[in-house]
Design brief:
- The structure is a single chain.
- By secondary structure, this protein is α/β, with parallel strands linked by helices.
- It has a domain at about 60-185 and about 230-265: Rossmann fold.
- It has nine helices and nine strands.
- The strands form two sheets. A seven-stranded mixed β-sheet has the order 5-4-3-6-7-9-8, sandwiched between helices. It has a two-stranded antiparallel sheet with strand order 1-2.
């Protein structure tokens, strides 16, 4: 199911992209074009994004996100960056963990998604300062060592240069601060992988057509998941960047994975 003959559907995926090119789903596109395509994709789905997440994950995404934010070790008084924060689910969970003190910065490239998140957080947050910054996580407009925790949930695979994004997360973290990355991955059981492919490439696009009016928007989703690095490879990348105590935990037979890493304390 994975190799459909498209330039980015090979086993190495992004590693085979030509100089100046990158992958948008299974399409090979100029690097400078991917940001525009991602913007258009999320403009299209923003108003139905939360509904579709719940529908397509059978509600499991709420459980994954709660476990992920709990694992980040957020303490009252922390300053938390919700990178690629979208409609604010992780921000809302971080606010609860902060228990009325501290700050959350929701950072996302897409204004339509942030506007949905702003309405959600304004209705349900009390006591914790929540800021909304629009920008590209490849160049985070926060000072070095200015946050205690970075959360990124189901968003980093949309970044043109993912490694650059993770380096930015490392830069803005204070020593001892923790990165939590929640992303989709591939099932560990082969039989489940077959069912997951069938569901992803058949029912997801159909649901996108019925509920969002775009089959392509929910064709991009499973394609981008298939091209995302394995948990082992992502853990290796985080260590190369400089994170220590890197771990990962597979959820629901591996279709979602929590990665944790800590910025080392100076010796």
């Amino acid at each position: 199911m994975i190799d459909k003959g498209f330039p980015c559907s090979k086993a190495k995926g992004l590693e085979e992209a030509s100089a100046g090119m990158t992958c948008f789903g299974y399409r090979l596109v100029p690097r400078e074009e991917k940001g525009r395509l991602v913007q258009r994709h999320f403009d299209r789905v923003a108003s139905r994004y939360d509904f579709m997440n719940t529908l397509l994950s059978f509600g499991l995404h709420h459980l994954w996100k709660r476990r992920a934010v709990m694992s980040a070790g957020i303490q009252p008084g922390f300053r938390v960056l919700d990178a690629c924060g979208g409609t604010g689910d992780l921000s809302l969970l971080a606010v609860k963990a902060l228990q009325g003190t501290g700050q959350v910065v929701l950072y996302d490239i897409n204004r339509s998604m942030m506007n949905v998140g702003r309405r959600k957080l304004q209705r349900r947050c009390r006591g914790v300062r929540v800021s909304f910054l629009q920008g590209d996580v490849q160049s985070v407009s926060l000072r070095e060592e200015s946050v205690d925790a970075v959360l990124v949930g189901f968003g980093v695979r949309n970044v043109t240069d993912m490694e650059r994004g993770f380096r930015e997360f490392h830069r803005v973290l204070r020593p001892g601060g923790r990165l939590m990355c929640l992303e989709f991955s591939r099932p560990t059981a082969s039989w489940f992988g077959w069912l997951y492919d069938l569901y992803s490439f058949t029912l997801m696009p159909l649901a996108g057509q019925l509920f969002v009016g775009s089959r392509q928007a929910y064709t991009y989703l499973p394609e981008s998941i298939r091209l995302f690095p394995s948990p082992e490879r992502l853990a290796e990348l985080l260590r190369e960047i400089g994170f220590v105590r890197v771990t990962f935990q597979r959820l629901t037979n591996g279709i979602a994975v929590i990665h944790l890493g800590t910025k080392a304390q100076p010796e």
